[in-house]
Write the structure tokens for this entry.
Amino acid sequence: MNLRPFRVLSYRFKERLGLWDHRLKGNIFSKAPFLWAHGASVGEVRLTLLLLKELKPLINWPFLLTSMTPQGLQIGEGKVDQVLPFPIPFGPPVQRFFDVVKPRGLLLSETEIWPSVLKEARRRKVPVILFNGRLSERSFRRLYPFRFFFKKAFEAFTLVLVRSEEDGERFLRLGVSEDKMRVTGDLKFLKPFEPLEGIIEDLKRELELKGHKVIVAGSTHKGEEDLLFRLFKDLKREFPLLKLIIAPRHIERAHGVKELAENYGFRTSLRTQQQIGWEVMVLDTVGELWKFYGLGDVAVVGGTFVKKIGGHNLLEPLVWGVPTIYGPFVQNFKELSERLKTIGAAHQVKDPKELGKVLASLLKDPASSRERAKRAELLFKEGRRALKETVEAIVGIFIK
């Protein structure tokens, strides 16, 4: 049984029930009413923060950010006026949340469709906008039998801003009114961050990387680390100065991944330990993977070699121009994967054997590999256009 959803929901549980302590409640009251924006986890929160940064000069209201996960909340802290856990999505907690936050508007990212929240927003006449809306074929098939239930909830939406015509068609078939629908493009084509000048050189000095080749594997899941350690052992014979930095998707697995690496015979350090002479470093910190990708001669994106996961952010290493490899299971990023393959900016491999071959090839020829990775700039331009259209649509609702 997967207990992770229960651990996530139990984090700051009283606040999720709308039972804040006196001091926090007073602090929220003093800033309300808010423009409330919600992103489910780290990736959606980062995307939401990019949008809010563009909106801030145009909508001069206090901004509230909510997230489902502890990591998402940590990423948001200090970036907006108030950060809170998303309420337990049923009657009383949602009502209490609205009572205290007094939202002027609600921005929901991607697939964050909560009927109880939408119902309460509609009852209180709060404008609701879904941005970067996406609905995979799989999700659509799961929701379609309940379309009459969702049709009522969708009436709460003021606007549904979707990534593509295909997403829009699926939302329409679920009951969203055509006059509320706009195709604005995919915000996930945005650069998830701007590479900071000098940050990589500082990190190299801190980690004592001198002449080393580095593989960075991000957002890995159980089974992927074992695969990477086997390949790393083989690659070390050809590249003696090779190092591996690995970031488990769930930070609570960091110690277990460290033990696994040690079982393979590698000198291993946690990021928080920074032991001298490490061959494998396991990131046990939140919010640092993006800059560690910049250390890589090659990057491997996790969650793509495990069938049920569906992949994680494929663009973060490409922001740094780092050659990027990912596996066959990218159902969460199908369109992005196809675009990356079309422009030749990244490498999708079908199995562990091919992964080993491509890793060795890229490590041998880093210059031409980095040239290919730079082709991702074409997608980043599309992301900027999508951001412009999304901002214009949102501002048009709130600023008359």
In short: The CA atoms of residues 190 and 381 lie 7 Å apart. The longest strand covers residues 213-220. The chain has a mean pLDDT of 93. The domain at 4-191+382-398 is CATH 3.40.50.11720 (Rossmann fold).
